[in-house]
Amino acid sequence: MATPPKKSLGRGLGSLIGGGVAKPAIPAATPVPVSSAPVAPGLLLQELPLTSIVPNPRQPRRDFDDAQVKELADSIRSEGLMQPIVVRKVKDGFELIAGERRFRAFKLIGQKTITARILEASDASSAVLALIENLQRADLNAIDEALGFASLMRDFSLTQEAVADRLGKPRASIANSVRLLALDNELQGYVRKGQLSAGHAKALLGIENVAHRVQVARLVIEKGLSVRATEAEVKKLASTKKADRKQAVQTVVADVQKRLASHFASPVSVVRKGTKGSISIPFSSDDELARLLEKIGVKL
After folding, report:
1. Reported pTM
2. How many domains does the chain have?
3. Residue 209 covered by a domain
4. Within a domain: residue 297?
5. Does any domain span residue 129?
6. What is the spatial distance between Cα 55 and Cα 67, in angstroms, rounded to a whole number?
7. Catalytic positions
8. In this structure, is residue 112 part of a structural domain?
9. Residue 131: which domain range?
10. Over the stretch 52-110, which tens digit does the pLDDT of each residue have?
């Protein structure tokens, strides 16, 4: 019994831009004629030359898996394009809003044209739609997602709350995502490659010292630690550092106390609490008090 053919990717912005399934792609050997009908933005599908389309400069996805693009290309070659790409008209042609992997797959199989839905969209709307399209795919890594949010805020002067409203996400989700960009490049690379999850990365942000953070991150990857185990490592490191700081303060206080006792030739008590404290020097007689005051430089 024959195995039913796999469906090519049919996810994306369907709920936002309307339905419509493109006709199957014609093999590369047979060129597809470009429609001469006038463009009706947002309403009609049209065959566009691939050479007339440029990538979206605000595409949040930085890395495209060549193997996945090839698999999509093979699927399109055998079954056709299940969902058109989405573009908008720009000065010298068209700019991609959604469907860059489909666009790359068409280039890979040698097609000259591709079915596209043409929308009227501002720079901000185009960036939002491109981010939404990628967020609907489970494989967008947490760093590229965070960069997408940051780009919307930076390029269009949007607050975290405004971005959250446009994307239909909680504001806290946007804030937590953007925090990941505080990680150094090495750790961001681990997240991009899937060696660390967003949960791991958020836990590691609890370590202020970059060198220590990298050290723990490598340990997490080496041992395959869970997010909970990573949080425990972060707490353990913080506890160790706190104990080290406390020990260092106690060492300094003991040294100061010893030097003061030597200077006054009398027992001295130094007590420190946080950044505050006290120094006390006991005396047993008026003569002893006078001697201590003289040492300090105070005369009765």
Report:
1. 0.53
2. 1
3. no
4. no
5. yes
6. 20
7. 100
8. yes
9. 39-138
10. 998 887 777 767 778 878 888 888 888 888 888 889 888 888 988 888 888 889 989 88
